[in-house]
């Protein structure tokens, strides 16, 4: 099994590198085919733009673009669903906008990845973008997998005998979240919050892993995705609070009055803004950073190639080696970031329902006993 897993990982890295290389080459070739007019030179057109290529790969879009070879583009176009107060609902394929999104269709056009009306009217976009589609696919695969595992447990497999197949993979992870995240941070109430913590952990993890597949979308590197997770965690935290918690927030005991005036706004901001922001920004930044680094190493080949073809070919092995290294790091980061988000959520929830000093001491003893 270990040998098969290593082969699969190596194959994914190789395919990922080829996709990126072909994509960058095709982008470079497309730019170089434009007329080399004086105006183009003044604007810097016809040159490789690594920043634009990287941003096009990590941001959301209305299509899955895998690679391009000449005039052939391996693309899966997604449905566009729009509502305009003047036109009503409109549904069509994103291919109507052309490969580069330069064409207009039915009174709509693309501007920097966003669909707008040509007459400037308001448009509500309900399209299934690649982030949405990939998230639904990832959840479908994961739910199908978990239902299969649950069916095995229901039939007695893994209960009366040793776990088999995917049970061996999932059971240690679930046990880890229970024993190292829920129990230490939530004390006697761990069982109440464990379903939510497991849901958050696996939801982030499965989207992190799918984001490493070549040609896929970086779902967890989207601020809308992480913001929703952060807001949901904030709601759970607020519903877990008690009067003692808010009493310490709005009137910290044992603090001079002058300090309380400064401390109260800080405490309120910490609960309503800082804690969810820490969850949102940490996950978003870490997942985007890895993709940017990988794409940057691939882009270096063509940056050197523009200066000198020999330099480009010479730097290629170095770039590929660094890409493979960072890719394996990203696999580890996918698990680490799911754990950190879940663990911080458990910590914040545990802080929200702490009672008086007696209750805190009891909670502390529970933590020590479950470590």
Describe the structure.
This protein has helices spanning 2-32, 38-43, 50-58, 130-154, 166-186, 190-210, 223-239, 243-250, 257-307, 309-352, 357-370, and strands spanning 63-69, 72-77, 79-84, 88-93, 108-111, 114-117, 124-125. The strands form 3 sheets. A 3-stranded antiparallel sheet has the order 4-3-7, with no helix packed on it. Strands 1-2 form a two-stranded antiparallel ribbon. The protein has a two-stranded antiparallel ribbon with strand order 5-6. α1 (2-32) packs across α9, α1 (2-32) packs across α10 (309-352) and α3 (50-58) crosses α9 (257-307). By secondary structure, it is mainly α. The protein has 2 domains: 79-127, no CATH class; 131-370, no CATH class. The longest helix is centred in the last third of the chain and has 51 residues, at 257-307. The chain has 11 helices and 7 strands. 67% of the residues lie in helices and 9% in strands. The chain is globular and about 70 Å long.
- Structural shape: globular
Structural class: mainly alpha
**First-last Cα distance:** 32 Å
Largest sheet: 3 strands, antiparallel
In DSSP terms, counting alpha (H) and pi (I) runs of 4 or more, how many helices? Answer: 11
Helix content: 55-70%
Summarize the structure in short.
By secondary structure, the protein is mainly α.
Topology, element by element:
Elements: H1 2-32, H2 38-43, H3 50-58, E1 63-69, E2 72-77, E3 79-84, E4 88-93, E5 108-111, E6 114-117, E7 124-125, H4 130-154, H5 166-186, H6 190-210, H7 223-239, H8 243-250, H9 257-307, H10 309-352, H11 357-370
Antiparallel strand pairs: 1-2, 3-4, 3-7, 5-6
């Amino acid at each position: 099994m270990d040998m098969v897993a290593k082969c699969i990982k190596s194959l994914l890295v190789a395919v990922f590198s080829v996709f990126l290389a072909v994509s960058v080459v095709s982008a470079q070739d497309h730019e170089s085919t434009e007329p080399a007019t004086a105006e183009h030179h003044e604007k810097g057109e016809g040159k490789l733009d690594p920043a634009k290529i990287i941003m096009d790969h990590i941001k959301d879009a209305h299509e899955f673009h895998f690679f391009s070879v000449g005039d052939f583009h391996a693309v899966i176009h997604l449905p566009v669903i729009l509502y305009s107060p003047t036109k009503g609902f409109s549904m069509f394929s994103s291919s109507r906008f052309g490969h580069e999104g330069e064409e207009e269709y039915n009174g709509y056009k693309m501007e920097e990845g966003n669909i707008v009306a040509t007459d400037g009217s308001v448009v509500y976009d309900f399209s299934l973008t690649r982030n949405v589609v990939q998230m639904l696919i990832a959840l479908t695969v994961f739910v199908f997998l978990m239902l299969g595992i649950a069916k095995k447990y229901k039939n007695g497999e893994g209960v009366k005998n040793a776990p088999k197949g995917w049970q061996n993979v999932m059971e240690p992870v679930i046990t880890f979240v229970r024993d190292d995240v829920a129990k230490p941070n939530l004390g006697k109430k761990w069982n109440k919050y464990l379903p939510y913590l497991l849901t958050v952990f696996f939801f982030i993890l499965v989207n992190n892993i799918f984001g490493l597949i070549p040609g896929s979308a970086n779902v967890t590197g989207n601020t809308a995705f992480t913001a929703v997770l952060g807001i949901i965690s904030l709601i759970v935290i607020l519903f877990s609070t008690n009067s003692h918690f808010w009493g310490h927030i709005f009137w910290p005991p044992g603090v001079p009055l002058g300090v309380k005036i400064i401390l109260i706004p800080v405490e309120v901001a910490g609960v309503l803004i800082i804690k969810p922001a820490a969850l949102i920004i940490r996950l978003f930044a870490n997942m985007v950073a890895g993709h940017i680094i990988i794409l940057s190493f691939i882009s270096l080949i063509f940056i050197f190639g523009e200066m000198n073809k020999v330099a480009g070919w010479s730097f290629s092995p170095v770039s590929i080696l660094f890409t493979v290294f960072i890719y394996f790091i990203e696999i580890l980061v996918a698990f680490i970031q799911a754990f950190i988000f879940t663990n911080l959520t458990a910590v914040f929830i545990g802080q929200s329902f702490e009672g008086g000093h007696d209750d805190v001491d009891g909670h502390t003893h529970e933590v020590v006993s479950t470590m």
